[in-house]
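Hi team,

Filling in the usual template for the complex we talked about on Friday. All components are listed, including any nucleic acid strands or ligand strings, so the model treats them as one assembly.

SUBMITTER: L.P.
PURPOSE: interface mapping
COMPONENTS: four
RESIDUES: 1136
SEQUENCES:
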Amino acid sequence: MCIFGIYTNLKKDAELHYTRQVVQALEDRGVPYYFDDALVKAMGAGPEASCRGRKIDVLLVLGGDGTMLTAARKYGPQGTRLLGLNMGRMGFLLDTEVENLRAAIDGILAGKYRIEKRIMLKAGILDAEGKIRASAYGLNEAVISQKKVLRIVNVHVAVNGLPVDNWRCDGLIVSTPTGSTGYSLSAGGPVVQPTVDVLLITPICPHTLQSSNIVISGNDEITVRAESDYGSTVLTLDGQDAFEIGQNETVSIKKADFGVEFIRYTDKNFFLLLKEKLAEWVIK
Amino acid sequence: MCIFGIYTNLKKDAELHYTRQVVQALEDRGVPYYFDDALVKAMGAGPEASCRGRKIDVLLVLGGDGTMLTAARKYGPQGTRLLGLNMGRMGFLLDTEVENLRAAIDGILAGKYRIEKRIMLKAGILDAEGKIRASAYGLNEAVISQKKVLRIVNVHVAVNGLPVDNWRCDGLIVSTPTGSTGYSLSAGGPVVQPTVDVLLITPICPHTLQSSNIVISGNDEITVRAESDYGSTVLTLDGQDAFEIGQNETVSIKKADFGVEFIRYTDKNFFLLLKEKLAEWVIK
Amino acid sequence: MCIFGIYTNLKKDAELHYTRQVVQALEDRGVPYYFDDALVKAMGAGPEASCRGRKIDVLLVLGGDGTMLTAARKYGPQGTRLLGLNMGRMGFLLDTEVENLRAAIDGILAGKYRIEKRIMLKAGILDAEGKIRASAYGLNEAVISQKKVLRIVNVHVAVNGLPVDNWRCDGLIVSTPTGSTGYSLSAGGPVVQPTVDVLLITPICPHTLQSSNIVISGNDEITVRAESDYGSTVLTLDGQDAFEIGQNETVSIKKADFGVEFIRYTDKNFFLLLKEKLAEWVIK
Amino acid sequence: MCIFGIYTNLKKDAELHYTRQVVQALEDRGVPYYFDDALVKAMGAGPEASCRGRKIDVLLVLGGDGTMLTAARKYGPQGTRLLGLNMGRMGFLLDTEVENLRAAIDGILAGKYRIEKRIMLKAGILDAEGKIRASAYGLNEAVISQKKVLRIVNVHVAVNGLPVDNWRCDGLIVSTPTGSTGYSLSAGGPVVQPTVDVLLITPICPHTLQSSNIVISGNDEITVRAESDYGSTVLTLDGQDAFEIGQNETVSIKKADFGVEFIRYTDKNFFLLLKEKLAEWVIK
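RESULT (copied from the run log):
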């Protein structure tokens, strides 16, 4: 029996119009479902309706690409499969327009879908003794930068323990292929097909003319030590989760030992999607 | 009679070794001199020794390029001429090695030097009614960005009232030719010969693939309106002076109606200086 | 009395439909006119109808931006004013849609127009003794490169006799502001407002990580010496006129001592034009 | 029994000084060896001394990186292992300084070395019926461009049959990780660790602001159709082998079904090598 979870961007579905349609569709089909914590409250449900502590097989995500990033970081590590129901503009990560939610749910119940696996990052903050003090996941990228805006940070980067370079820059981006069309792209990084097993290292506005963009194997581990004259540095995942980095701490970034699984019906050409997305950027 | 001021980077000349040599040299020559405020205290002098409220003809600046930026913003508007006495690594703005201070002072007294004039920026923050609420000068660049690190800001840029573009980016740099080898360069801007009368507009990590670097006339006025979903934005001059920008405020940036005057003895080839500087960046 | 010339892109107006309309309009108004050489033949006219050897006051150019480049190189040096009658897609240099040719001619006769002056380049090839062996004009850019495709050339660049740098690259572009939206832009150069008095130096695919884009004063003179292991190098103006460069020859490039004058009725915002142009590039 | 081949860059070892040392060392050890064709003649040997038609186990390559590219294209497809004996400046592909040739030969005979496998490209030209008319290998990159210098070519690119984009540009580079530090880098491509299984697609000076650099899987096949208004286009491999492309022909590029094997003794940090190389570029 397939257990469903529902994850809604409460800004995009403020009146819960589509969320209630999803609930109704699942009720109609007699399928068990639970709500992500924020939604429990919004739906006026009790704690027994929460996904918390349960094994969710499929998470229906209502929102945009940003919503999908948050949901992937939270549910990806549990092996939950995610289907994005798009409520925004064109999304890379959302497979299905929200209007088609019933057909999508039927497809899931019939097992008629494709799985697209995406690598995620695991970033850990190590204290002076090399012990992991905190760790977190990212689907797009990990960024190490100043807490205060636009101040230079000096980053020392190693791959598998071997020094790569040190850059004086606004920050350092370590990106997955999924993240290659996001922040990494605006910092000059290459576009990577989503299923290629690599990681990207891209400094932001480096005060050096060294080669800026590096592609390494998805099996490599990156270590970053950040020095600053202007106070603390931070590790930010997907532009959403931030962790302060202490003075003698280092950050370790590598591929997570799981890949998040997206449910796919459509078989879009990644490059045409990209082209649409970029055109959208230009014609504002 | 030429009135001297002395401006010292107290980190670089912590024991005032060179500052005292400057003082001695001026005493030996019977020349009147005053201290910048911070130095008054460091020298244990009284308020009568301060530059404040006096017309300083020539300011001797001991430090590095960063010191020169601060001194230029403070003394440039008064028409004071600046001579940089270099205590750091290679500097673009500092003419003379600090060891040669006596010869340099003699040259000034004899009027045997060249003047290199550099344009400065005047940036103003305008409130909702269009009144200038605050204004400040910059020698390198004005940056408009988020207060919080690495968050996107939406900037709407106009030149002489005509819309140029709006960018979703990490920030916007408006640079002088002097600033073209600084932050602007790391954001992908061109290198401009110091005496060319232009301004540069360069977005930082724009989320768009539009043309990124724009060169306009030094007589143009740039207006920037910055929108943010994440709180306040700031205007920063030369990476040193910061001003918070209110919700309905705009920023106006144009060439100041004076140019700062640097005293020059040496006639260095700007491009070779640049090459040295960049080589220094690479071989760390 | 205003003497007109007519310059037609014979590919774009293959059946001379619009050219004949121009002729008719000039006949109707009793205005003297002559044809550019290629057009003399196409119109079946005799040599007395040719612009050759006459002082042409206003040249009507039917075609696209490329046509305007050719016409400007040929007629600009004589002080002829040019009006572009656009037969193509959006053009930066063509003021008037060809359909409005009658109103445009009336405007010229009435003197009701604006002049936009653009700087042009003068490039000279100097032999081993420093004598000018050949020279030519360009409105967009001068390019120095290999004759054989995609072979590295080693260029030594000086400005006003002072060495700037030497690059191993595919070629070197020296561009006017007008040319800044052309080849220079694809090689990574900045966009320059058309009326700013500067020149741009941009190497093509340099095998070096030095600063790539340089902005110098419009009054500077650039000297280029190109070395190649693979045979001859060439100087190309506006991508249209090519001159082989001998083994011991150098190329000198500076602003021409005249500016070409474009007749303008419309007052388009250069940046919006640019935005349209770039959008056109994306959505093919 | 290990059969050796010798491949010498006759410009770098013009007097065959090191080549004769290699011969002597192999003679001393009683090891069979043959010469590459060009060397047969230079050594004054007979046709029986030629590698041609023989299975060569290990090829000793005397020269620089460029020599290694040529040797890899010729001997890589046969499964020959290559050891580079460096006679030039720092090389990425040459493991051993030529002075250490005896120790290197001993290491090979003792089987005491490491193999570094690099992917190579196989490029084929397909005629209008889709039949392969010609094919060739490349270790660094395949470039499709105009025959005439600096003329725009319109390239239509597909990956695994799906359209990616079409660019108006100076040319298109498809690079291996090995080639990522070569021409691809000067065109703005990322640096890729040598052993990562990807290919890079990079247009040269594209007349578009679309994303320029694309990273795809090493298992993908790229198809390129090139259109030109200015005559023929060419396919060039490693900047050394050129093939004219006919009007209705397309080019197919994919990973070769073998990887060239380099013999390695030293275990250099790729990123430090790169840094040295780039520093060498700057300080000329």
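MY TAKE: Residues 270-282 of chain B form the longest helix (13 residues). DSSP finds six helices and 18 strands in chain B.

Thanks, L.
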